Amino acid sequence: MKKISSSIVIFLLLASVNLYSQKANKNNYTSLIQEEVGDLNNDKRNDRIMVEMDIEDETQPSRLQIFLSQADKKLQLVVSSTKLIEEQYPIRKNGKYSGNNVPDFFIENGKLIMLTDIDNRKSSYEFRLNKNNFELIKISRVIWDGKETTSHTEIDLEAV
């Protein structure tokens, strides 16, 4: 009896591992949306940012990957996130378009800049690389009321 119950437990564990591994292989980020090259870590070598989309998934999620140059001139993946960018057809919208564009990424003066347009709020987020972590250092947001008033908010986190 004990041998049968332990066999059942092992079978269930293997079945659950197989189930989760199939979900992990489901994502196919094959459509390149944006690629940006520049020096993020101030080593005078080009680093790379890539935004890819999984067009086989009905929600069309995106993945941001950041590669930093190494001393041997090869690129090393340091960031890979599917949580930073909202899907184009999120589940919360029942398969309808979110209305928000995929953010644009730029490398300027050793900083990573992300430009977004979410719900008609145009925002800029500036990050710097510090000890292999990206730190948010500045947020800028512009909102237009659709008539005659434009408001601009800027938060400089470096000065804090």
What does this structure look like?
With 160 residues, this protein is α+β, with helices and mostly antiparallel strands. Helices cover 15% and strands 45% of the residues. It contains 1 helix and 9 strands. Strands 5-6-7-8-9 form a 5-stranded antiparallel β-sheet, with no helix packed on it. The model is unreliable at 1-25 (pLDDT under 50).
Rounded mean pLDDT score:
83
Secondary-structure element order, as H and E?
HEEEEEEEEE
| N- to C-terminal distance | 65 Å
Low-confidence stretches are: 1-25
Strand arrangement within the widest β-sheet reads: 5-6-7-8-9
Number of helices: 1
The structural class is: alpha+beta
Q: Mind telling me the C-alpha Rg?
A: 21 Å
How many individual β-strands?
9
Profile the largest sheet. 5 strands, antiparallel
Percent of residues in helices: 10-25%
* Backbone shape: flat
Query: Based on the structure, what is the oligomeric state of the protein chains?
Result: single chain
What amount of the residues lies in strands? over 45%
Keywords:
single chain, 5-stranded antiparallel β-sheet
Give a quick summary of the entry:
With 160 residues, the protein is α+β, with helices and mostly antiparallel strands. It has 1 helix and 9 strands; from the N terminus they run H-E-E-E-E-E-E-E-E-E.
